[in-house]
């Protein structure tokens, strides 16, 4: 690599612990070999050189480099682009001379990784600077993201040098990403979607699944379908899906095409397609129903340039209880399911895609398995913390390409139950890697939030999504305190101390037992006539509310004094959740105080306390 003009000065100072820059990397690299000496940073203008084999790849990488510079606070300057056949490289250096080029070859340990050549990279830090090499464009981009994290961490920890080291890195799993719920009339804007794409790419995720209810699109065959809901246009979807390709991310639509079609089937025009009156499941044996679902696929699928189309098909237990009862009696439930799935698979194939589906019904009816095409990708999902996942193993042994899905435990909660969900993510990712399955994702869901605790605050789910991406890259648990510190440094760039501590407090605030799910949300909208007597005899429950108040309250204090350089608006959502959680705890404890002083107590004083709580809640809704 040659030399170049200087771009700008990145401000480094102080003398923190230099090894912190490696602890803060998300995901953690496969191999890090720390060496003697350092790359000195203070007051040194940084230069950048990109090597690529053609102008198109060089242009994409230069665009990503400029975004990286912007996040680091480096004013745009001069980039040197070298078109070098067969080479993908990046050099970051201070002074006039770039570091010596390095080779892109990964160690033998990467030989069995399915995408090591495409997504792997080698990064070397020498006294002359940082050099990245890769065999493919995507790998170089991921190495660039690691270089950005090293520089960001050095700034956060106020370091004036980075230890010399060699990093060899590649993903354990081929597909890694976020399964995000856009149903229930909670659609993001196009700019929100693009921001999510950039965020996932920064943390080396390559897949974004969009769960969208079937009436949340503007169709040509029926423009009135879902007109009372917020809807995506296909122009918007194409724009974002194409945008994501520049970040090496495949967007996969997830559309319910059997059960969970309540909104569509509540439309008088389509209500007769339901399995039975009032059901949210379409009749799988009706030709009219199948034609309707095929119309949906044929309009949606062409707008996504990727390989996959996800037909959902989960939780359809009502099949056989209505219009399909005769067919089920004649053929058996397995054949009815298999015929419907195969018809959808044929339609998806006709659109040039590979079908994905949730695997719960197949696992509940294992005799379906021999009846199905093996090119359907099965998504095994389980949101429980457990050591064994035999269903995942069964699907792999059954010859299906399989992916896995863990849960964020944000549904019907004021904040995700991360103390529980991170364990679920870890276990699912580890089992997926052990079975050599295709990939792993984590889901958030918006069930029951509207009308009870406000719309889903999707901003607070990136803490879990990034953790899932890290586990998909390298399936090894990260202690929560260490993860929170790294996430604070890389996502918020506000220092790992206060923000990291606040994130850990929030993650632990609702406990790590599934029995505690929804407690805070339900308390926040509870009926005093029910809760005051219940709190009178509370014992373990009382300690739960005291712990919640303490942790959420401390998190709020820490977050209010933080000053993140990146994603400050998302941190505001974490703080709002801390306030809501503390409110729920204060309400429970006030119920307890009232209960203990019945039947004789100062009604006026208690009324004032409840009025104060009401004012706090109203302020949060504003």
Topology at a glance:
Layout: E1 8-9, H1 20-23, E2 31-40, E3 45-52, H2 55-72, E4 80-83, E5 88-94, H3 116-119, E6 121-126, E7 129-134, H4 137-156, E8 161-169, E9 175-181, H5 190-202, E10 207-211, H6 234-245, E11 250-254, H7 262-265, H8 287-300, E12 308-310, H9 325-331, H10 333-350, E13 354-358, H11 360-364, E14 377-381, H12 390-397, E15 402-407, H13 418-434, E16 439-443, H14 462-473, H15 480-492, H16 496-509, H17 519-524, H18 528-536, H19 540-560, H20 568-597, H21 603-621
Helix pairs in contact: 2-4, 5-6, 8-10, 9-10, 13-14, 15-16, 16-19, 18-20, 19-20, 20-21
Detailed description of the structure:
With 622 residues, this protein is of the alpha/beta class. The protein folds into 3 domains: 8-169, Chitobiase/beta-hexosaminidase domain 2-like (Chitobiase, domain 2, 2-Layer Sandwich), CATH 3.30.379; 175-478, TIM Barrel, CATH 3.20.20; 500-621, no CATH class. The protein has 21 helices and 16 strands. The protein has helices at 20-23, 55-72, 116-119, 137-156, 190-202, 234-245, 262-265, 287-300, 325-331, 333-350, 360-364, 390-397, 418-434, 462-473, 480-492, 496-509, 519-524, 528-536, 540-560, 568-597, 603-621, and strands at residues 8-9, 31-40, 45-52, 80-83, 88-94, 121-126, 129-134, 161-169, 175-181, 207-211, 250-254, 308-310, 354-358, 377-381, 402-407, 439-443. Strands 1, 2, 3, 4, 5, 6, 7 and 8 form an 8-stranded mixed beta sheet that branches. The protein has an 8-stranded parallel beta sheet with strand order 11-10-9-16-15-14-13-12. Helix 5 (190-202) links the parallel strand 9 and strand 10. Helix 5 runs parallel beside helix 6, helix 15 packs across helix 16 (496-509) and helix 18 packs across helix 20 (568-597). It is globular. Residues 1-15 have low confidence and may be disordered.
